[in-house]
Amino acid sequence: MKIMLETERLILREYTPEDFDAIYRVISDPETMAHYPKPYDEKGAHRWLDWSLQNYREYGFGWWAIIRKETGEFIGDCGITPQNIDGEILPEIGYHIHRDFWRKGYGKEAAAAVRDWAFRNTSYDCLYSYMTSGNTASYATAASIGMTRTKEFADDVYGSMYVYTITKDEWQQMAR
């Protein structure tokens, strides 16, 4: 288990195969995954975990488990992965927080840490987040870490999508 990031309240670490039950609890929950076509079944959750482990090998990063320091609970995941956003493969900050932990600032805290890590440790000049246009919590999280909505597009599976971005220059301006 490799710890990638620490914040005031959270540890973000690489998944291990032993995290299956915890991530399955998050991505199989219908309310947590309301903005996906459907919650993940066991087979889909295994693919999610395998894909994440593959991303570590291929890119050196990916989705990371979010652990509450206070309790050691696995509450979701957050990370950066190459995603197809309206036909382009772009570095996306993504996050899933189990509904039991919503509205406590964990998504913002984790996403900000991933943003900072990505700009310090990769050559990316711009980071992206994308979500369904109805996912107000997700785009509020993106906006809370300095991202702005720069695009809307229609997706065959998800419908209307919003794209939020932050450039390295914008991030550096925020830090001043």
Q: At the fourth CATH level, what is the homologous superfamily?
A: Gcn5-related N-acetyltransferase (GNAT)
Helix content: 25-40%
User: What would CATH call the architecture?
Assistant: 3-Layer(aba) Sandwich
| CATH class categorisation | Alpha Beta
Please give a structural write-up.
- The protein has a single domain (3-175), classed as Gcn5-related N-acetyltransferase (GNAT) (Aminopeptidase, 3-Layer(aba) Sandwich), CATH 3.40.630.30.
- The chain is α+β, with helices and mostly antiparallel strands and 176 residues long.
- The chain starts with a strand and ends with a helix.
- The relative contact order is 0.14.
- It has helices at 20-27, 42-59, 106-121, 136-144, 168-175; strands at residues 3-6, 10-14, 63-68, 74-85, 88-97, 126-132, 148-155, 159-167.
- A hairpin with a 3-residue loop joins strand 7 and strand 8 (159-167).
- The mean pLDDT is 94.
- 34% of the residues lie in helices and 35% in strands.
- The strands form two sheets. The chain has a five-stranded antiparallel beta sheet, sandwiched between helices. A three-stranded antiparallel beta sheet has the order 6-8-7.
